[in-house]
Amino acid sequence: MDQGSIARILKQVSGGEDEIQQLQKALLDYLDENTETDASLVFSRKFYIAQWFRDTTMETEKAIKSQKDDDSSEGTHHAKDIETTGQIMHRAESRKTFLRSIIKTAPSQFSTLKLNSDTVDYEDACLIVRYLASMRPFAQSFDIYLTQ
């Protein structure tokens, strides 16, 4: 991954959100901007929103499950795990709120919310997609699957 390009995109896309949310917004801006030239991008935009929402929900469910597992075997790391679970829950809720706001916004209205339409070009959009895909659980555990 080209971390320099990711850092450049993050600088261009200003906002108080976390890094993942900024990249998601940049990619959605790109898709929304180019829907007139390629109708399949409308589907891609909806697919990404749905997938990210599902991922956030799964992350929250895993945090709750791990917290319940820790409750049954209270150990020395219990307080630290609750704090981490709380942080995961807070981040997940902020991402869900962000995605809900995008879902409620019509694509034509979403383009007016863009800060800079020249932020992301095709190559940057491909890089963002690869970067976000590398953050998914399957991509992170791919080496384990290959080893087995």
From TrEMBL:
GO MF annotation: an example: chromatin binding
Transmembrane segments annotated in the record for this chain: none
GO CC annotations, alphabetized: Scc2-Scc4 cohesin loading complex
InterPro entries: Scc2/Nipped-B (IPR033031)
UniProt-annotated stretches for the region Disordered: 61-83
Gene Ontology BP term (one): embryonic viscerocranium morphogenesis
Record protein name field: Nipped-B-like
Originating species: Charadrius vociferus (Killdeer)
